[in-house]
Automatic annotation (TrEMBL):
This is Short-chain type dehydrogenase/reductase Rv0148. Keywords: Oxidoreductase. Belongs to the short-chain dehydrogenases/reductases (SDR) family. It comes from Comamonas testosteroni (Pseudomonas testosteroni). SMART domains: PKS_KR (SM00822).
Length: 291
């Protein structure tokens, strides 16, 4: 008996990397898993891996960037397992360029997969859960979104990706506020792990060590995702978790710093020293990571 026993989870981009780790970890905790990926062979390979370990899984190649495509994912999930409680929006793509070199196609592709994909998944599955709640059924559902350190702090050469990921963090806050009445929580994650994207961007940093704790193993991140998908997390919503190796923290995001109130309109010529002081005194505190 695991903490996700009898729960069904849909994971996008689950044919490798973090998505695969999430699928394996959810299955280990008793969940039925839907492996969604546009790469049919990769999705089936992970589904077979889950089943070989004694879990329940199906592969799925539905398009997460259209409502019709996501509806087909929901339909396949219900046909296989009868119900669904969790979606993990994990699928992503990179089109890294310096901002002034970025094309419209680079921008639109990243926005479509990340931000539109998150929207379509939550709209369709959220609608299903809302209908259940209105029909008098108990709902204990989860939306788990994927932001990024790039979305929280910016990242040179990734303006499209950072903007999409920042948008996902903002979307999560609105979902948490609007959907709580239907028994749905919404949280997001800023993970750091070895994936095809990070191996392409920083291969030396994320390579597997010859010995000792593998900080960049995606399974390290899977623990918080599985917990968020369980019934144990029903009191947590609207949060963004940062996870890497054994480190776990909650990102507070933008905050209101010190307020300098003149109690009258500022003159533009007055503001140089005032702004410099506000910036100096409004810095966020250092993060404190668990040990």
């Amino acid at each position: 008996m695991g903490i996700c026993n009898q729960r069904t989870v849909v994971i996008t981009g689950a044919g490798g990397g973090l998505g695969r780790a999430y699928a394996l970890a959810f299955a280990q905790e008793g969940a039925n898993v839907v492996i969604n990926d546009i790469r049919a062979e990769a999705a089936q390979a992970v589904a077979d891996e889950v089943k070989a370990a004694g879990g329940q899984a199906i592969a799925n190649t539905g398009d997460i960037t259209t409502v019709a495509g996501v509806q087909s994912i929901l339909d396949a999930t219900l046909a296989a397992f009868g119900d669904v409680q969790v979606i993990v929006n994990n699928a992503g793509v990179l089109r890294d360029r310096m901002f002034l070199s970025l094309s419209e196609e680079d921008w639109d592709m990243v926005m479509r997969v990340h931000l539109r994909g998150h929207f379509c998944m939550a709209k369709v599955f959220g609608g299903y859960w809302r209908d259940q709640k209105k029909a008098g059924k108990e709902v204990d559902a989860r939306i788990i979104n994927t932001s990024s350190g790039a979305g929280l702090q910016g990242s040179i050469g990734q303006s499209n990706y950072a903007a999409a990921k920042a948008g996902i963090a903002g979307l999560t806050l609105v979902q948490a506020a609007e959907l709580a009445r239907y028994g749905i929580t919404a949280n997001c994650l800023a993970p750091a792990a070895r994936t095809s994207m990070t191996e392409g961007a920083m291969p030396d940093m994320v390579k597997k060590p010859e010995s000792g704790f593998d900080v960049w193993d995606p399974m390290n991140v899977a623990s918080i995702v599985v917990w968020l998908g369980s019934s144990q997390s029903r009191h947590v919503t609207g949060r963004c978790f940062e996870a890497k190796g054994g480190e776990l923290s909650v990102a507070d995001g933008w905050f209101t710093g010190k307020i300098n109130d003149k109690q009258a309109r500022w003159e533009p010529s007055e503001l140089s020293g005032v702004v410099d002081q506000l910036i100096a005194e409004g810095k966020a505190p250092q993060k404190v990571y668990g040990t």
